[in-house]
């Protein structure tokens, strides 16, 4: 094999340098400056101007810029200050020059000799000049003509014209990509700010824990995988001392799920004031969610009631992973089973009674969403119920806050800090010895 460099050719070498410098630019102004600096090396080019002809008739144009490339003050800052490309089109004056009317039917580089009154076009241009006119294409049509003023009478070889049309159109594409990237970045920043505000608002409406209940400790944890999420919990106490808790998981993630979560909270709060049994409240929530949610969306939930006078309780599971009961002896068992469909699927879901249970001294109930058991080790399996139960057994003698702290710490250790791909919500309720 024999390798021969083609870069010794001046035009090839210049074109390589143009492409290298364009790839290094970090702004549209830097792109334009680097291109202009390299164009001066390609031929006897002294000035540059842009004629925007989009939507205009023969000889009409909008002058977007005109620069003296030999002026020592020419710089990216000068381009930013004197270019009109960021000015809305209706605010840029439409001009007419008869000598440019011949460009209307052209779609290839042309050479104009003896353009007069150039200073009337722009003070940056010489009074009389020759120019290579390079078309810039958009959607298959000429959108702009770049006028490259050359020394009077200087020849223009076809190879130079080919390099100019390639370089200038490459520059135009890069400028559009830069502008699009900037708009996307600005939009992303606005959306991120809005999501952060939504997350802050969502966390502010998470309910406080009920007042102290003798013999009972409660702890909660909420960690959305995005700024705002679709998991929800609530704990409250009736006038007779009965303690209620619920946990819910809206299908999906992000802002949509967060909005549904807020609807769920408002509906639950309004219905809770009526002090109805859990089964009736669940039916009402189901009807509201069915009317509000789009097809395919739903809410899983588990409801819990405990009477501290007898330590007897009842739980209703609506398509949700059943809670775990950590017994004082260290045994872990499920609490309840999915006795009804998730909320929002079937508006005629029949009323379902709860499953009874008893909390003995030292027993704890752990309500959770599936983001906990679906936590995954990097490149490894999900935590699963077996993993969660193993963590719980190690905390058999701890109070609710300590049990919760250990779950969160161990799950973070299991995932090695990997960002969660689902919301995580936990409620721990323990009958203290």
Detailed description of the structure:
- It is built from ten helices and 17 strands.
- The protein folds into two domains: 10-184, GAF domain (Beta-Lactamase); 198-431, Phosphatase 2c, domain 1.
- By secondary structure, the protein is of the alpha+beta class.
- It has a six-stranded antiparallel β-sheet with strand order 3-2-1-6-5-4.
- Helix content is 35%, strand content 26%.
- The chain starts with 9 loop residues before the first helix and ends with a strand.
- The model has no long low-confidence stretch (mean pLDDT 83).
- The protein has helices at residues 10-24, 28-42, 76-82, 118-121, 158-204, 254-272, 278-292, 370-373, 384-393, 400-415; strands spanning 45-52, 60-68, 94-96, 110-115, 129-138, 141-150, 216-223, 231-237, 243-250, 299-307, 312-318, 323-326, 332-335, 338-340, 355-358, 364-368, 424-431.
